Automatic annotation (TrEMBL):
Sequence similarity: Belongs to the HAD-like hydrolase superfamily. MasA/MtnC family.
Protein name: Enolase-phosphatase E1
Keywords: Amino-acid biosynthesis, Hydrolase, Magnesium, Metal-binding, Methionine biosynthesis
Positions of the UniProt region annotated as Disordered: 207-230
Pfam family, one: Hydrolase
Coiled coil (residue ranges): none
Gene: mtnC
Molecular function in Gene Ontology: 2,3-diketo-5-methylthiopentyl-1-phosphate enolase activity; 2-hydroxy-3-keto-5-methylthiopentenyl-1-phosphate phosphatase activity; acireductone synthase activity; magnesium ion binding
Pathway linked to the protein: Amino-acid biosynthesis; L-methionine biosynthesis via salvage pathway; L-methionine from S-methyl-5-thio-alpha-D-ribose 1-phosphate: step 3/6; Amino-acid biosynthesis; L-methionine biosynthesis via salvage pathway; L-methionine from S-methyl-5-thio-alpha-D-ribose 1-phosphate: step 4/6
Reaction catalysis annotation: 5-methylsulfanyl-2,3-dioxopentyl phosphate + H2O = 1,2-dihydroxy-5-(methylsulfanyl)pent-1-en-3-one + phosphate
Length: 230
């Protein structure tokens, strides 16, 4: 972990960091993708439906009917585009899946004790993911270790902080948390995100889990769990 002095808060990525990347790509993404059309049809004419279509139109730069919005959402999902309307719709669909027991958020075994230790030490605990804040809450609220939301202090996403590869996003989070960047630690599996946080003056730690065969992330202290960060 880079940096010295008292650590005020830890901001955690989800995919590949606190939870399995394969679970997101092989379970959550296909689950939502298969239900885009049925969700839009079931909610046609509602305020939620209108907000999704309007957000797709804003992103695309042109007015979209339901069929056009669906085509764009499916295209963005297939390309894993980090766009707010897609992330919002995925979160809405996942929420129903969590509620009826079809889905469960995946977290590694070291995550709950790490959150507990940081909480006991007075270190803030936050999540920053491309997925919507609602999807993040559902993820941590429905795990095999129970509801972990009481161990978290807050959440950030594309709409509240900005893109994860932009240093300005980490400036925004630091301002919202009220701490100097050097007192904040960002933990992720992606080099571009870690580089952005470091550029903004944050401490960083790069995660490579034992089930992750990707190359190490250069330029950042490496860990294979959250345990070395305690």
């Amino acid at each position: 972990m880079t940096g010295t002095g008292r650590l005020r808060a830890v901001v955690l990525d989800i995919e590949g960091t606190t939870g399995s990347l394969d679970h997101v790509q092989d379970v959550l993404f296909p689950y939502a993708r298969a239900r885009f059309a049925s969700w839009l049809a079931a909610h046609r004419g509602t305020a939620q439906w209108r907000r999704i279509l309007d957000a797709v139109a804003d992103e695309a730069g042109s007015v979209q009917d339901e069929a056009g919005a669906l085509a764009l959402l499916e295209r963005w999902a297939d390309a894993d585009v980090k766009t707010p309307p897609l992330k919002t719709l995925q979160g809405l669909i996942w929420s129903s899946g969590y509620a009826d027991g079809q889905l469960q958020g995946h977290v590694y075994a070291d995550v709950p004790p790490a959150l507990e230790r940081w909480k006991a030490r007075g270190v803030g605990r936050f999540v920053y993911s491309s997925g919507s804040v609602a999807a993040q809450r559902d993820w941590f609220g429905h795990t095999e270790y129970g509801d972990l939301r009481p161990l978290l202090d807050g959440y950030f996403d594309l709409t509240t902080a900005g893109p994860k590869t932009s240093p300005e996003s980490y400036d925004t989070i630091a301002r919202q948390l009220g701490h100097a960047p050097a007192a904040l630690l960002f933990v992720s599996d992606l080099g571009a995100e870690l580089d952005a946080a470091a550029t903004a003056g944050w401490r960083t730690a790069a995660v490579r889990r034992s089930d992750d065969d990707r190359a190490p992330v250069p330029g950042h202290p490496a860990v294979d769990s959250l345990a070395p960060l305690l």
